[in-house]
Amino acid sequence: MAKQPNRSQNPGEVTLSRDLSLFTITMIGVGGMIGAGIFVLTGIAAGIAGPAVVLAFLLNGLVTLLTAMSYAELGSAFPEAGGGYLWIKEALGNLPGFLSGWVSWYAHAIAGSLYALAFGRFAAEVWLLSGLTTFGLSVGQLSLGLMTVIILIFTAINYIGSSETGTVGNLLTVSKIFILGLLVFFGILAMLRTDVWQYRFSEGFMPNGFLGVLIAMGLTFIAFEGYEIIAQSGEEVIDPRRNIPRAIFVSIGIAVLIYVLVGIVAVGAIRPPEGMRAYEYLGERGEVAIVQVAKDIFPFGIGGIVLLLSGLASTTSALNATTYSSSRVSFAMGRDNNLPKMFAEIHPTRHTPHLAVLATGGLMLVFAWTLPIEDVASSASIMFLLLFLLVNLAVLYLRNQRPDLDRGFRVPWFPAIPILAIFSNLFLAVNLFRYSSLAWYAAIAWIVLGALAHSLYFSKLEAMEKPKEILLEEVLVSRDYSVLVPVEDHKQARILGKVASVLACDQEGEVLALHVVQVPQQLSLPEGRLFLKDGRSYLEEVIKQAKMCDVPVHTIIRLSRNVTNAIRQTAIENASDLIVLGWPGYTSSPGRLFGSVADPIVDNPPADVVIVRYREWRPLKRVLVPVSGGLNSRRAVRLAASMARAERPEAAALTLLHVLPTGYTEADHVRGTHAVKESMEGIAGLEELAIETRMVEGEDAYSTILQESPGHDLIVIGASEEPLFRNFLVGTGPERVARNAEMTVMMVKRRSSPIHSFMRKAILEPTKPKALE
Q: Can you give the pTM of this predicted structure?
């Protein structure tokens, strides 16, 4: 009976790799919510709400939770959609969908302006502390100059295609939480040393009444929108129906707790000048108020520089994220013909939406130079509040019109929660007019401009043709033996396709041909379909080789951020028995043996693995198989026999070679004879082949193998059977043979056992060993 691998793919399907775990996606949300906002807006908000800034943060958390429930429901139902723009377009139609994208582009761009302005202010403080010359510029002028530089830098970074990895993002978020934890800890210690803090909260808790709290809520609401990034990344989340709702709620809980604690110590621990209230001093210090708090409470006077550096890290990280998000929204709108087509253009070599990135960078510069930081923050909050209002309308519509959707989470007390969220968002947005009428005028002008552009031009364009998925050759059967062959170019597809087909044919199995499209961070995974054209021709070459051997083929194109993870995931999902990888004999990845893709797979393979150091293929007349005993040698003999039997009309001959040490003893010879016999045990069909056994003396085993290789057309060598830590220290002999031999070399290694795999991950993986074990 044929085995039934756990295949989520259909034959020939284009699939997406899901790599983001619950922890990673939660950290993305937390990082978005405790980014630059907590450093920049806490002091400004305290100046408006007084000590009740703590209440403003808490109530913002509750209002955020209402809309977050809608995001959780839609994100679990549409994990591929990528956020509010497409949800609203799906539910409410073209005009609301266009306006939501238009508003989202504005909101993320102006949020980037806020983070750039904050960076400029923090960087100016560091510049002054370092004693560098200011060239006669005031602090404000220096801040604007540094702000301009950082926007240009991150526009260039996103244009080129560089971005921080998930691991770096996690470390940055954890470090921010740690530093803010220190701020809270030293702040509580400072508060406990005096009773003054109690009076700060009991006397004049709401100096501007509840209206001040509401204004502070609207101003700081932008700081709580980071959970939207979780929904935007839905196509990359592992088990999205379960993990997207969890990540949204956990990240909000962590962020609200941190904001409340920071608000308490900011009001309670700061040392205002004589005759000035704490909240007034926080408002006066504005975007550097938290830095002032740290100066007052950290020991050894290091608080200011620690918080400044943390603020710089947070603002740069947030600026990178918003530049990416904003350009991604405008790219999606350009692809849908909701913006000029140039926004959908992809750079031919960098694979980034370069014109969308440049337009976003220009937009951020305009906002940052024309609006004060308070108006920038207010304008961003207004736009996000309006966007969330539309998302809540979308969940109301889809719950009624699409009850059949598979929802991993359902908003409770429906429809009361979305309706309450709509009115809460609208009320906070309208109330911000009292604080910043300029922000509202800018928002209205942007919305009117978008509505006019849509009605006069974009609504008349036909929807752009979607990139087509590639459906390749179909497989009608599932065999007991499956050979996975990842390919990235035509030469590799031709040689590896032949090797994989021969091995599968000999085992009456099938070939699983895989091409992985590595999608840059600036594009969503579904948008990676724009790069599928070349992949089809590579897989067709594998199909051609398989047809020559009369072997069935299953083909997959996988869209992924990480090629190694995509290969490993495909092997596990399809229960592959063997992975065939290619190696040209060199790598451009520093410190790697076979390359950044192959090394992690070879080091801890999920299936038996063969690395083919390919040269021009020649008909096989004689195959050299060095043997030293052990399971890898037996696998090498089995694969060599499969390759030899494929030659028609006459099978190739095998040479089994064992290298004896210089000055060997009788015991060495006996061990060698036993190793050769052991390598042939249990292998069917060897009696059909011409086999020569050779015992050769040599000082170095691998140099001797190379000396014996002339006259052979292929070398098949097993990975050395050495202890776990051996190759971590000295490297690999099979790689030496493969690099220097004049014919194609196949290096064979068995799959890792569960214990071996665990030890690799727990002990050696953090140090990234580069050797074939």
A: 0.66
